[in-house]
C-alpha cells in the first residue's frame, strides 16, 4: 500500500512538472502572459532555441543574438532597446 501511494505521488509530481514545462509563455507560478522576444538575451541567458545551429536554454554565445529569445511580459518586446535595435517577435539572422 505504501509503495502504491509513493508511486502515485511521484507520477503526480512528474505530471505537474511536465505541464509547467509545456507552457513556455507563462513563468511557473504566475498567471502573467509572456511572449518570446528575439535579440534581447545576453550570452548564456536565452530561454531557448530559434533555428538551425542553436540549442536550448543558456546556449547563446553572444549578447543580443537575433536567433535566440527570452521570455518577456506580453506587449513589451518591441519596446526593448538593445545596441542592435529593438527586440523582435520573430527570429532574425545571426
Summed up, the helix count is 1
Rg over CA atoms, rounded to whole Å, is: 17 Å
Helix-strand makeup class: alpha+beta
Distance between the termini: 56 Å
Strand content: 5-15%
Tell me how many strands there are. Answer: 4
Q: Which strand order do you get reading across the main beta sheet? A: 1-2
What's the order of the H and E elements? HEEEE
Q: Let me know the largest β-sheet.
A: 2 strands, antiparallel
Oligomer: single chain
Q: Quick check: average pLDDT?
A: 75
Number of domains: 2
Low-confidence stretches: 4-10, 13-23
Q: What gross morphology would you assign? A: globular
Your description of this structure?
The radius of gyration is 17 Å and the shape is globular. The chain has two domains: 25 residues; 62 residues, no CATH class. It is built from one helix and four strands; from the N terminus they run H-E-E-E-E. The protein is an alpha+beta fold and 94 residues long. The chain has a two-stranded antiparallel sheet with strand order 1-2. The longest helix has 21 residues.
Amino acid at each position: 500500500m505504501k509503495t502504491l501511494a509513493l508511486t502515485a505521488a511521484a507520477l503526480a509530481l512528474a505530471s505537474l512538472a511536465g505541464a509547467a514545462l509545456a507552457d513556455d509563455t507563462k513563468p511557473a507560478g504566475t498567471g502573467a502572459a509572456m511572449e518570446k522576444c528575439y535579440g534581447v538575451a545576453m550570452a548564456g541567458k536565452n530561454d531557448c532555441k530559434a533555428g538551425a545551429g542553436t540549442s536550448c536554454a543558456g546556449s547563446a554565445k553572444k549578447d543580443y543574438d537575433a536567433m535566440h529569445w527570452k521570455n518577456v511580459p506580453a506587449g513589451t518586446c518591441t519596446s526593448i532597446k538593445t545596441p542592435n535595435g529593438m527586440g523582435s517577435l520573430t527570429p532574425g539572422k545571426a
